[in-house]
Amino acid sequence: MASPSWLQALLNPNKNWFAKQHMKTVSQRLRNYGLRFEDLYDPKEDLDIKEALDRLPREIVDARNQRLKRAMDLSMKHEYLPQDLQALQTPFRSYLKDMLALIGGSYLDFDYTLDFVGR
C-alpha cells in the first residue's frame, strides 16, 4: 500500500527539517554502537525478516550477528564504539531490502535510505 504524498513529504529528511534532525539522531545512536538500521529488525517477530535472513549469504548474517553482539557488549559496559570506528559505520546501508523485495516484505513501504548516508 503506497503512502499518500503528504506523508512521504512529511517523512522525507530532504523536505522536512524535523525528519532530518530525527534521522541524524538515529544515525548517531546507531553509529555509537556500530549498528545498521536493519539490525534492529527482529526475526522472531516477523517471518519475512526471518526468511530474508535465511536466504542471505552466511557472511552477511555473521556480520549482522557480530554487530549485534558488539552492541550488546558495549551497552553492558556503558561504553560507545571508539570515534575512529564510528566514522567508518554506515547505519543506513541496506542488506535486507533486496531480499525483502523478493519475499514481498511489508518493510519496503518506507524508504529510509533517502540520500542521507554521506552526511
TrEMBL record:
User: Where is the protein found, in the record's own terms?
Assistant: Mitochondrion inner membrane
Q: Which PANTHER family match?
A: CYTOCHROME B-C1 COMPLEX SUBUNIT 7, UBIQUINOL-CYTOCHROME C REDUCTASE COMPLEX 14 KD PROTEIN
Highest rank taxon of the organism: Eukaryota
Q: How does it sit in the membrane?
A: Peripheral membrane protein
**Pfam families noted in UniProt:** UCR_14kD
Kindly indicate whether the keyword Signal belongs to this entry: no
* Entry annotated with the keyword Membrane: yes
Where does it mainly reside? mitochondrion
Q: Kindly list the GO CC terms recorded for this protein.
A: mitochondrial inner membrane; respiratory chain complex III
Q: Which InterPro entries does its entry note?
A: QCR7, QCR7_sf
Q: Name one GO biological process term.
A: mitochondrial electron transport, ubiquinol to cytochrome c
**Name the UniProt record assigns to this protein:** Complex III subunit VII
> What family does this chain come from, according to its entry?
Belongs to the UQCRB/QCR7 family.
Q: Give the record's keywords alphabetically.
A: Electron transport, Membrane, Mitochondrion, Mitochondrion inner membrane, Respiratory chain, Transport
